[in-house]
Amino acid sequence: MDILQVVPAFSPACGGTATAAFQLSKKLSERGNHVTIATTDFRLDEEYRQSITEKGVEVIPFHCAANISSFLFSPSMKRWLNARIAEFDIIHLHDFRSYQNYLVHSFAKRYQIPYVLQPDNSLPRVIAKKKLKWLYDIFFGFSILRDLDAFVAISEEELRFAQSFGISEKSTHLVYLGIDDNVYFGNPPAYGGFREKHHVRGRMILYLGRLHKSKGIDIVVQAFSRISKRQEDAVLVVAGSDDGYQAELEKLISELGINNKVLITGYVDELDKVRAYVDADLFVHAVRYMGGVGFTPLEAIKCGTPVIVTKECGEVIQKANCGCFVKYGDIDDLADKMIFLLSNPEESSKMVERGRHYIEQNLSWDSIAQYIEKLYENCICHA
Q1: How far apart are CA 340 and CA 29, in angstroms?
Q2: Sign of torsion, CA 218 220 226 230?
Q3: pLDDT reading at 339 higher than 90
Q4: 172, 247, 267, 349: least buried by Cβ within 10 Å?
Q5: Cβ atoms within 10 A of the Cβ of 170, count?
Q6: Helix and strand tally (H, E) in the chain?
C-alpha cells in the first residue's frame, strides 16, 4: 500500500503524537508498505527525520509560515497535495484540530481516498482554547469527523468521547499506543548515566514531560515539598521542554524553599530520557487530563521504575494492576503514595513486574502495525 501519514510537527519534543506517527510508520515500512509522512518544519528534529528516512519512510516537512496558538499554517503543502495526493491508497490523520488535517481532508474527499483519524486524545474541548476549538469544529472539525472511514482511539475514554461526537461504534477502533521495542524491550542503559550527567544524588523522584499547567507539575512539587522533610535524601527531577509554565514553576519551588532539592533539566533527548527512567526510584504523572492512557508511565515501568498516576491517565496501569493511583489535585494523598513506594521496595518491584509482563504481551508496535494495516485494507475495500 501507499500510505500517507499526516502529523503537524515531527519531533520527539512535540509529544506522543509525533512518536506514534514515527513508530507506526517505521513498522508499516518494515512490512513492505510505501509510507510518506507529511508534516511541517516547526521544531523539526533532523536527526529524528533521518533515522526514519533510513528505514525507507519519506518525510516531507512543509514550511510553517505562521504559528497561531499551535495552529501551524503550511500553505505550501497545498501545491504538493495537488501534485501527489492521487498516489496514495489510504491516509492516516494524526491529531485533530490542525491546518494539515483540514487541508488533507478536502483533498481526500475530492479524490475519494479513504482516511483514518487518530486524534491522540485531542478531541475533547477541555482545559484550554475552548472557544478556538469550537470554531475549528464548526468550520472544519465536524466535516472531518463526518467523512472519516475509521476512528482510532488510544483509550476507552476516547472511544466514549468519539461516540459523544456522533461517530458510529462500528467506525471506532481501540488501539493502545505501543512501547518502542528497540529501546525498551532490549537492554536498557546501565544505571547511573543520568545521575552522573546531572549530578543527582539520593532518592530520585522523576517527572518527565512538557512543562504545562495541565500536567499537574505544581501538585507534584507541593507533594514533594512535604515528603522532603521526611525523606531528606529525596531529589525531584523535572525533565522536559518548557511549554509556558517554567517561570511559574520556578517561583513555586522558590516559595516552598526547596530549590536545592529540585532539578529542572529542560528538554532531554531519547537516550537521556531512558537513562532518567532507569536511574529514577519513582516516577510521578499527576496530569489533569490525558484521555485515559499516559505514555510515559508505561515507559518508566518498562525500565524498572514504579509509578504513581492520576486516574485520568491510568487506564492501562489499572488493567495491569501495576501502579498507585491518586486523585488529581490531592496533594496529601500523592505525598503519602510517594512515601509508601519509596519505603516498600518489594511491593514496588511486584507492581513493576506485572506492568512489564502486560506491556510485552499487549503493547508491541509490531502487533499494532499489523492491526492498523488490516484496518487500512478494510477501509480501502469499502471506500
Answers
A1: 45
A2: negative
A3: yes
A4: 247
A5: 7
A6: 17, 15
pLDDT at 183: 60
88 and 214 co-located in one domain: no
Question: Which of helix, strand or coil describes residue 118?
Answer: strand
Selection from 268, 214, 296 nearest residue 309 by Cα: 296
Domain that includes residue 93, residue range: 2-178+364-381
Tell how far CA 33 is from the center of its chain. 24
pTM of the model: 0.82
Domain count along the chain: 2
334: left (phi over 0), alpha (psi -120 to 50) or beta: alpha
- Would you say 152 and 161 are in contact if contact means Cβ atoms under 8 Å apart? no
Residue 75 has pLDDT above 70, yes or no: yes
Q: Is 3 helix (H, G, I), strand (E, B) or coil?
A: strand
**197, pLDDT greater than 70:** yes
| pLDDT tier, 70 (very low <50, low <70, confident <90, very high otherwise) | confident
Same domain, 126 and 189: no
- Of 211, 212, 357, 344, nearest in space to 281 by CA: 344
pLDDT attached to residue 42: 95
pLDDT tens for 344-363 read 999 999 999 999 999 988 99
Same domain, 64 and 112: yes
Estimate the share of the chain in helix, then strand, then coil, as percent rounded to the nearest 5.
50, 20, 30
Co-location of 155 and 289 in the same domain:
no
Q: With contact defined as beta carbons under 8 Å apart, do 377 and 370 qualify?
A: no
Polymer length in residues for the chain: 383
Q: Are residues 244 and 172 in the same domain?
A: no
pLDDT of residue 74: 97
Task: Assign 3-class secondary structure to 56-84.
Answer: CCEEEEECCCEEECCEEECCHHHHHHHHH
Same domain, 352 and 370: no
Task: Encode pLDDT of 87-103 as tens digits.
Answer: 999 999 999 999 999 99
